[in-house]
Please model this.
Amino acid sequence: MTSDARGVDGDACIDLGTEEDAFTRGGNRLCFIDPRDRDRCIKVLRPDRLPALKRAEKGFPKNLKPLDRFDDNVQEFRVYERIRRAIGPRAHDFIPRLHGWVQTNFGEGLCSDLIRDADGRISITLKQYLWLHGMDEAIEQVLTAFSTGWAGSGMPSRNLLLHNMVVQTGAEGPARILVIDGLGWPDLLPLAYYWPALARRKASRKTRALRSSIESFLPKRGDRSDYGYHGWLEERQRGA
Ligand SMILES: Nc1ncnc2c1ncn2[C@@H]1O[C@H](COP(=O)(O)OP(=O)(O)OP(=O)(O)O)[C@@H](O)[C@H]1O
Ligand SMILES: [Mg+2]
Model:
């Protein structure tokens, strides 16, 4: 299936309520718990960040790009197709499963697995975990396993950002890290999709850059104003 032949689920429009009903939001999308299935989320474009508005902010020549290049859902859907062909099912050790397009009161939404901890609460981002606990032994182990697997599979991504990764916690503590945004090679000619050795090299570089970003982030712990806007879930947002 291509993004031009979207598998929108029948005609039924899912009512997601208002913006305030989203469990959280990123810089581009609102994230809702799927009212049909609490283990799935539906992401829609923020009404104040629609593709036409984002394109209008750009100067020449970026403002000549087609509108869907500014649509994070379309871009993500396409990347998932490429990941399916290049990596296959083992990619889902590191990224949620995608369930496709749905029609909502915010327009088309993209439905995927919602990552929850063993106790049912929505998992927090790696950024929030590190802020709360620092680099403890448990996360060190999980991060090492993630990095080895990510690099070994040649998973495609932009820079791995702490607010685009979540830590899924099991009964015994942190169990795995998943990347929920920022996927896909950003290169003009993304040869790495077709050349696994190159993909592994590039993915390995991303995991090393992630380590450096963690090192720069950790000293900021303590002063909440240094946390930034992204990637924090209050307890009430974690909807057990
Ligand atoms: N599948 C998921 N499972 C659990 N939490 C998620 C999931 N997807 C998103 N989140 C939460 O929602 C937040 C925002 O999601 P996401 O990064 O997809 O939005 P965005 O607007 O595309 O982000 P950006 O600002 O990076 O463009 C994440 O930081 C994370 O806390
Ligand atoms: Mg994000």
Observations:
- Residues 164 and 181 are 5 Å apart (CA to CA).
- The longest strand covers residues 98-104.
